[in-house]
What does this fold into?
Amino acid sequence: MLLIGLTGSIATGKSTVANILSSPPHSLPLIDADLLAREAVRPGTRAYASIAKHFGPTTPDLLLPPASDSSTSLAERTDPPKERGRPLNRAALGRRVFGPTPSRVRDRHALNAIVHPAVRLLMLRAILAHYARGRSWAVVLDIPLLFESGLDVFCGAVVVVGVSSPEVQMQRLRARDTGLSAEEARERVGSQMSVAEKVDRCRERGASAGRVVWNDEGKEELQVEVARVMEGLEHGRGWYWRWWLWASPFMAAGWALWAVWNGWRARRRWEQSEKESGKKE
It folds into this structure.
């Protein structure tokens, strides 16, 4: 079973590509890191308690208001039991961690240090469940911070969804989130690894394990682009390959180790090239 790490920057269309891959004709199982992150920080979990402890004293609106508050949206009106606590206010938390200032960078690192381990555990459970079923040649891991979290080395292949310029990102972001100002949009785009860097990291893996989906046009063009990329990844990985790995856990473990080794080497090559280019400058 091939683990395909799907990533991109904010407002590049990664979620649209994920929907395409999980729908016919591809119909690949999808593990969404954002959904797992919500599950990991629901009231009552260890990550929820850590976030409340770290950010609560300096973020008065960290938790959503009680259901009795008339300003609370309908989707937010199911409060958990009192002993578990109220859900996190993701908008307030986002204001704490998005942005280039040193304090926000520190807060973002602190939040990631709490959430990422919990998400990885849930992700591992989901991967093992899909492997046990043995129904698909690949599983898509939808991870916005794939490279930042270091999870790219565990993927047999990486697909990056990119656009041609940051301006396109900001236009799409403000069209999607109409309440964002131009400055807020720039901060959110600037707080993440650039599309160019993700594309370079992806291409360092080689054509058989790193592909880029360009999303500068419409939905139909994107579907054609996705089909082209997936055809390249599926080549040589037919039903016999899937059943061979499923029937032999030892072979599957060996192939997984080989994929991790290749991913680690690609990361090291990229880091070395960045170091050499820095010396030239």
Observations:
- The longest strand covers residues 2-8.
- DSSP finds eleven helices and five strands in the chain.
- The radius of gyration is 20 Å.
